[in-house]
Amino acid sequence: MTLRVAAVDLGATSGRVMAARVGPGHLSLKEVHRFPNGGVPVGGSLFWDVLGIHREVLAGVAEVARTGELHGIGIDSWAVDYGLLDRDGELLGNPYSHRDPRTRDVPELVAKTVSVQEQYAVNGLQQLPFTTVFQLAAARGTAALESAHTMLLLPDLLGYWLTGEVGAERTNASTTGLLDVVTGEWSSELARRLQLPWSILPPLRDAGSVVGRLRAEVAADLGLAPDVPVVAVGSHDTASAVVAVPADSGTSFGYISSGTWSLVGLELDEPVLTEEAREADFTNEGGVDGTVRFLKNVMGLWVLSECLKAWRDRGTPATDLASLLADASTAAPLRTVVDINHPSLLGPGSATDPMPERVVRLARDAGEPLPQTPGEITRCILDSLALAYRRHLRTAARLAGRDLEVVHVVGGGSHNHLLCQLTADALGVPVLAGPGEAAALGNALVQARALGADLPDLAAMRALVRETHDVRRHDPRPGLDWDAADRRVGPATA
């Protein structure tokens, strides 16, 4: 049979609800609802409008239901952010955005209690200031945390509102810093040492399990029968995206899930917890079917999107994305390169500190030629991203003892042909770009398997993606000295 499911795929700048069909030799998506998303500044802090997100999710699912039979619902989103519920199951305030500055110095404070070596031995994670454990540490002593009965990561919070069922899907739980990457269970000992209320951590569940059936009132509002299941997919969007990487079995591949963030790494069977991996600041996150996503977080196309926003607000001519990429393609290659993961690029641009000026300032501080035009700034960003991908994929392969035969780029960045070509040039291996909606496809595939589709493993899911979706091949071109450019960037920022 062909199954029809709603794949809810939430990004930090936009969300979408897709109607997906999955059957023998068939895998398709149709976007039925898209809405803008973003942090809301209030009183010097940055929050998510999670009730607004919930409203849009309901609107999208209702539209999927209106246009045909619906067999299931799955939700994936970005990682680490959470909501707190009181003992009555009510939300205690809007969730913070991971780009809120309150956690900036928290990792150093936490390391005074539990060393970074001890943390890595448990969670295997890259030291990033916005990781859930550091957000919770920043919240110690607050009324909200002291009143909390349950912590739910955002996809699980939205699933709770649909079903009434509390839990945490493991791929997203693995990004919190509180999951033991070896056992796959919460580390209550780590939470205890950090004086965090470990009892708020909900029961864990695996991707592919059924969260629950729709609440009767939710089903009635959506015009659905109450037996429609909500399925726990790889609720971290990167976990879902990696499911849909159209890799051949037996091929030693790297992946870049390219969007606002770029998640750059390998799929492994076991975590890499060596001291060298920790010093290189690589992360071991859970994947679907017990795999490990051994990867590095790179700032991604966030920097370019914030530049686009600044230029649009100023009314700068010819700064739509197509024009910028055309100008960047003719700009001098590797003229200006910067550390694209520099902390100064993390926060949203503002009228007093816009993103283009931050990029230029980084170039000035590094002694690089200053980019003068939007096209040159765009080329600087893309060259710098390609260098970061090169550095981190090569390091990942070395740390894991793997060869790197091909790199798959999935997500929205797979449509950026210039960036994909620069990535192939930098790495010296073919880059296969697509599918663009990998997270939604992986979401739909895991749902379909849970609902009875003959997709026994990741190999079968990826074979269906290859059968039904085209990819664009970028072969490496010789001629540029990427080694010299890499040396100019210097040591990478975590």
Automatic annotation (TrEMBL):
Ranges in a coiled coil: none
Keyword Nucleotide-binding: yes
Location of the Carbohydrate kinase FGGY N-terminal domain: 68-243
One Pfam family it belongs to: FGGY_N
Keywords for this protein: ATP-binding, Disulfide bond, Kinase, Nucleotide-binding, Rhamnose metabolism, Transferase
All residue ranges annotated as the Carbohydrate kinase FGGY C-terminal domain in the record: 255-450
Keyword check for Flavoprotein: no
Segments for region (Disordered): 470-494
UniProt cross-references to Gene3D superfamilies, sorted A to Z: 3.30.420.40
Superkingdom of the organism of origin: Bacteria
Family, as annotated: Belongs to the FGGY kinase family.
The protein's name in its UniProt record: Rhamnulokinase
Lineage: Bacteria, Bacillati, Actinomycetota, Actinomycetes, Propionibacteriales
